[in-house]
Amino acid sequence: MDLGLKGKHALVTGGSMGIGKASALELAAEGCRVAIAARGEEALAQAAEEIRARTGAEVLALRADCTSLEDIRRMVAEVVARFGRVDILVNSIGAAQSGHFLELAEQAWRDSLELKLYGVVRCCREVVPHMQRQRWGRIVNLIGHRGRQPEARAMPAGVANAGLVNFTKALADEFVKDGILANGVSPCPMETRRLDYMVKAKARMEGISEDAARQAYLRDIPIGRFAQPAEIAALVAFLASERNSYISGTTIEIDGGATRGI
Questions:
Q1: How far apart are CA 60 and CA 204, in angstroms?
Q2: pLDDT tens, residue by residue, 245-255
C-alpha cells in the first residue's frame, strides 16, 4: 500500500527510542524526511544514524527538552529552516511515575504532567500554525492504555493520558477545517525500556518478583504477548499519511485486546 508519504516532512518527538524511534523509521522508509528530537544526545545520534543506514532518508537530529517552551520553539524553527515545512507531528514523549497514591510526592505529579501532558500541548501549539498555512497536516499523539484503563498504582499516567485523549479530540475538532487531522494511538505495555521500569515498580510496590510482575501485565493482554514498537509504528504511519483521509479526533487502542468496555 502506497501511503502517499514520499516527500512529506515529519517531526517525531521522543524519537530516539521505543515507539518514537520505530515511528520515525517507518515514516522514513515510506519516503519522509524526518526530524527526531529527544533529550539524550547519544541515543539521539545513534537513532539518527540507524534510520539513515536502514532507509537512506534525510534525518535531522535535534536535542530538545519538551518541558521547555524555549527548546520546543527552537526545535520547530530548526525543522522549518531545514525542511521548509512540517507536514507531520508525532508526539511520543513522556513517562509518568508510578507509586502508591499517598506516597507520590507533589513533584512526582508535576514532573509527570509537565512532560507527558503539557509537553504534547506545547509541541502541537508550535506546529499547528505551520500546518494551517499549508492547509495540510497530520498529528499523531502517543497516549497510552491507562488513559481509559485506570490503575491505582499508576495514577499520574492515567491522568496525563486521559487528558491527552480529551486534548486530541478537541484539537482535531478545532483545526480539521484547516486540513489538519489529529488522532491518538493508545498502546498497552510493550517491549521497550519503559516496560522494564514498570515491571520493577510493580514488583517493588506489590512485594512480588519481577517475573511475577511481568506475568501479571501479560495476563491483562488477551493476545498473550507484548507488542513490538514496529507494530505500533505501522498504525502511526497510516494515520500520518495521505491514505488517512477520514479519521479525525479518534484515539485508537492497539493493545492486543486489553481494553475493557465498548
A1: 39
A2: 999 999 999 99
